[in-house]
């Protein structure tokens, strides 16, 4: 197994996993909405997306991490 950061070449696989997550949360399936959402995250670089790939090279999981932003610290 390996964990790596998603990029454009993983857009469809990441969208597939995100759509499955949405279904788990009782949302209707909508691959194209999931794909547009993930594409916007990659475009805006407002979250990091990591993927889990099994030994058969199938992508089986993902995690999104958001950069920490605070209004308490001055801009640098």
From TrEMBL:
<dbReference type="InterPro" id="IPR016181">
    <property type="entry name" value="Acyl_CoA_acyltransferase"/>
</dbReference>
<protein>
    <recommendedName>
        <fullName>GNAT family N-acetyltransferase</fullName>
    </recommendedName>
</protein>
